Amino acid sequence: MQATQGKVVIEEIKAGSYGVFFGDSAYKKLRYYLDTHGYSKVFIAVDENTQSLCLPYFLYRTELSNCEIIPIQSGEENKTLGGCIQIWHALTRLRADRKSALLNLGGGMLTDIAGFAATTFKRGIDFIHIPTTLLGMVDASIGGKTGLNLGVLKNQIGAFSNPSMVLIDPRYLQTLPEREYRSGLAEMIKYGLGLDEALYRELQAYPQFTTERRDNLIWRCAKLKTRIVNEDFREEGLRKALNLGHSIGHAIEALFLKRRERLLHGEAIAVGLIAEAYLSYKLNYLEKGELIQIRDFIRRIYPGVNFEKKDFQSIKSQLKHDKKNLRDARNFSLIRGIGHCELDVHIPEAFIDEALRYYQGG
Ligand code: GLY
């Protein structure tokens, strides 16, 4: 990784009880935080990618020594209770106690599972997220959602539990394959479509972003997410807007997990965004022209995801397990004009078939 980069906004925001820090100055904040909280031991959770590509830079910037490294296997298929047990065992073997801190250096999968492991280890130890993927920076690391998959059911087990701090350094994106980068972009598109039309329009420039523009867009999304979780931490209202694209998206992701075919979270969300934009149109929340523009924009970025008519039933039955559902109604968050969201929309089953067919180009 290079130690130089373009001009970066250096800012911080408050997400409930903890700070989200951005850019170079964040390392000093982190070091100060660790030095002043009297931790007995500091652990760093990494996966095989962040261990080789990000950890050396992180240690150099924080000047941390005497930390224990906890390796985690990357991949959504490893976000399981078994994976979590391995983290608990590692913490136990390395003699973590209740005054230990776990620093989570990785993407959304790692911050979800390691955040959950920390929350439940000895009834809870402090943890800090240092997201290394775009998805982690703009979404997963902020808002206190920690969790595991149960079989193919995404995030079925989990706890709302806040980190003690989040450190966002877009420099880690230098280590990210383009496919992973695009996966995170889907969450940014979601913010634009559901909450911020100007952001959506700016994202149309992808892939022509300068580093400075990219960093500002990341920070803007982090601020948007923070504002929302500050207002509705437990997802009783406004936070449901962040589920846009995720009802169908999670069902598609589950289908691919079941098939053991690799599909990134954002790639599934891209399908969900198109299909749910169709549902928004179907309910007269979106103009036809807007729907087509959204579909074309998303299709320009993401390769087509293959599923067939025979998969529709499986996708629909996954929707029944969606955590957003209460009493088996299919509760969608939809787009009500670009930049606005309609929450808790009940969708009849036949519309879902139509939406999936629309995605397929039918
Ligand atoms: N990723 C959606 C949320 O945090 O609510």
Explain what this protein looks like in three dimensions.
The protein is of the alpha/beta class. It folds into two domains: 13-176, Rossmann fold; 184-360, Dehydroquinate synthase-like, alpha domain (Up-down Bundle). The chain has 14 helices and eleven strands. It has helices spanning 25-36, 48-53, 55-62, 81-93, 108-120, 134-140, 178-195, 197-203, 211-231, 246-259, 265-282, 288-301, 312-320, 349-360, and strands spanning 12-15, 18-22, 42-47, 68-72, 101-106, 126-131, 145-150, 153-160, 165-168, 331-335, 341-346. It has a seven-stranded mixed sheet with strand order 1-2-9-6-5-3-4, sandwiched between helices. The radius of gyration is 20 Å and the shape is globular. The model is unreliable at 3-8 (pLDDT under 50).
Key words describing this protein structure:
single chain, alpha/beta, Rossmann fold, Dehydroquinate synthase-like, alpha domain, 2 domains, 7-stranded mixed β-sheet, two-stranded antiparallel sheet, disordered N terminus, binds glycine
Task: Give the arrangement of secondary structure elements.
Elements: E1 12-15, E2 18-22, H1 25-36, E3 42-47, H2 48-53, H3 55-62, E4 68-72, H4 81-93, E5 101-106, H5 108-120, E6 126-131, H6 134-140, E7 145-150, E8 153-160, E9 165-168, H7 178-195, H8 197-203, H9 211-231, H10 246-259, H11 265-282, H12 288-301, H13 312-320, E10 331-335, E11 341-346, H14 349-360
Parallel strand pairs: 2-9, 3-4, 3-5, 5-6, 6-9
Antiparallel strand pairs: 1-2, 7-8, 10-11
Helix pairs in contact: 4-5, 5-6, 6-7, 6-9, 7-8, 7-11, 10-11, 10-13, 11-12, 11-14
The chain binds glycine.
